[in-house]
Structure prediction request, 519 residues.
Amino acid sequence: MSTSVLFDTPGPRGRVRNHLLTVVSVVAVAGALYWVYSGFDAKGQWEGKIWEPFLQADTWRYYIIPGLIGTLRAAAVAAVLALVFGAVFGLARLSDHRWIRIPAGVVVEVFRAIPLLLLIFFIFYLAPTLFGGGDYAFIAVVLGLTLYNGSVLAEVVRAGVHAVPKGQSEAAYAVGMRKNQVMRLVLLPQAVTAMMPAIVSQLVVLLKDTALGYIIAYVDLLNTGFKILPAAFFGSLIPAAIVIGIIYVGLNMLLSYVANWLERRSRRSRKTAATPVAPPGAEAIGLRSGGGLDSTD
Amino acid sequence: MDDLIRYAPELALGFWENVKLSAVAAIASLILGTILVAMRVSPTPVLRVAGTAYVNVVRNTPLTLVLAFSALGLSDQLGLIFSDVPRTNSFWIVAMGLSAYTAAFVCESLRSGINTVSLGQAEAARAIGLTFSQSLRMIILPQAFRAVIAPLGSVMIAMIKNTTVATAGGYLADAAAVMKIVFDDTGASIPIFIGIILAFMALTMPIGFFTGWLARRLAVAR
Prediction:
């Protein structure tokens, strides 16, 4: 549905006003872009010399690709661990036993409330006594991301199981299934379909947050692109920022696109009776799927 | 425990910087986010495209990169200077980067709020002859805001936690930076860590409860 529900089809005066507004906004946007362009130009940021490194294979081979691999490695390990953490603690919070439910709830709520960077710092300084050796920066980034995103995913799991209509578990109990059969055979398969979009959106957050490793000198894309590379090629700071910015935005948009696609698919799906779980922190009260003032873009 | 007491004054001063950053970024990002959402639903295609592009790019860029670019790129290279005092300048650079980043999330929340307003409301507004800006201002946005109070609370809580990334923007006075300096002295100190966490929780939990309460109180009955 289009946004046109918010305004009438413009009449003659409205059209003039819209054209005027279009012209004004084009000028404003172009002006803002020109301001950035000329600012960069005045500092010589468009000179071929400082952009040249990005056309050479060696720059990619020795700086950008290793950084990208560092980012993806941390993100992949943390994603797997966070999914395990989320599944375990999400299910523990749904337990019928109070002595499991309450401690799991405390763990999840505490790790969700801690600023991630503080957690990473703490693990980074704790790692030498805890692990004795290894790549402390990598351990700190991965463990921090796991604990935080795992806690968020635990909430997603809980919401996903709750999103399955009550009749499903009632029917399962009625045909004589045990508690773990109900969860394993009836609730979870339907909940996973409903959770998929929220899980992928959270993985976008996780991938983005690997950049925090920059602060504790973990060798990720931001570090190689923004610290090491400009040190090797003098003056290439802004070109480097633009190039790695494009890589980050491209990666995350790709994942976001997958999340949207999954959401559309699970909305249509007849494999689940549950409605898709909204990404954490994004749901509006009373949000219905469709029927509202949806905008097209 | 001794460590916490010994370093408490520095840590408290550091945390106060997080509070100040949060206050500035909360106001600025709410204003900027509202402007962005108005752009995204406006009758002018250019504004819609510009708003969408801004939100998609900023939302998918790591905050660390936004802040590092603001400090090293915009401030050092392009001469975007708020103050001649380096410390004050860094504060405003970080506040600006954080606001620009959070505004994209505020915009997304508000847009999902606009989706909850029923079609009839917008049609009725048009039927009685309200213009686009009138219906947005008097009919749509007030209802949209009321529907997204709780999500906006979550966005603000995330923003408060994100003030710790100020280090990446060269502002080395906030609680995270102070904690790092202290840890260089003492090693990982559990009391200090818990102390700072509790301070952040004391800031974020009331916001969670308050916005939750307000959301229930102001919920639009449909």
